[in-house]
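Please fill in the sequence for the structure shown.

STRUCTURE ENCODING:
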């Protein structure tokens, strides 16, 4: 999946929605770059990136659902809210993308690869995960509601920098 630059009409609607929920920054369609990425695990959902193309302006992230837009502020609470409202649809085809999304936006981690096996109550996943202090092999259980439990963590070595821009 690739990032898509929002059309003029889509950009106007997204900026309007973002300004309704954004507590600090205010955006204008004329001076903002808005891109979207579809999220298969949230039916009809899109990851939205918005930034003003000026030095030292932060890139902000939101998820646009058909009925609301939610700020990705690093909290697990907002991801759990999305999981409930979307609702989350996990399958063998979507688990890797969801886990990468969840670790990045609610954990400040970058997943480099995963093997996931479906179970009766969700998934068991083994992933290579980059954190601030190194590269790790982590084993997780993931419920069908999107709740993640770390089962084990083994350091594999030092890591590189976590990317500033999310992608699948």
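FILLED IN BY: designer on duty
SEQUENCE:
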């Amino acid at each position: 999946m690739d990032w898509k630059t929002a059309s003029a009409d889509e950009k106007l609607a997204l900026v309007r929605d973002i300004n309704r929920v954004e507590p600090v920054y205010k955006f204008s369609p004329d001076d903002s770059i808005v891109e979207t990425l579809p999220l298969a695990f949230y039916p009809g959902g899109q990851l939205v990136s918005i930034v003003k193309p000026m030095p030292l302006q932060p890139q902000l992230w939101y998820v646009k659902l058909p009925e609301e837009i939610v700020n990705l502020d690093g909290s697990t609470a907002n991801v759990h809210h999305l999981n409930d409202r979307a609702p989350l649809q996990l399958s063998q085809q979507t688990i890797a993308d969801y886990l990468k999304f969840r670790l990045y936006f609610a954990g400040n981690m970058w997943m480099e690869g995963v093997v996931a096996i479906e179970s009766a109550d969700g998934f068991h996943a083994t992933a290579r995960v980059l954190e601030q202090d190194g590269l790790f092999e982590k084993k997780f259980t993931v419920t069908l509601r999107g709740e993640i439990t770390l089962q084990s963590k083994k350091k594999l070595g030092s890591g590189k920098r976590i990317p500033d821009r999310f992608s699948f």
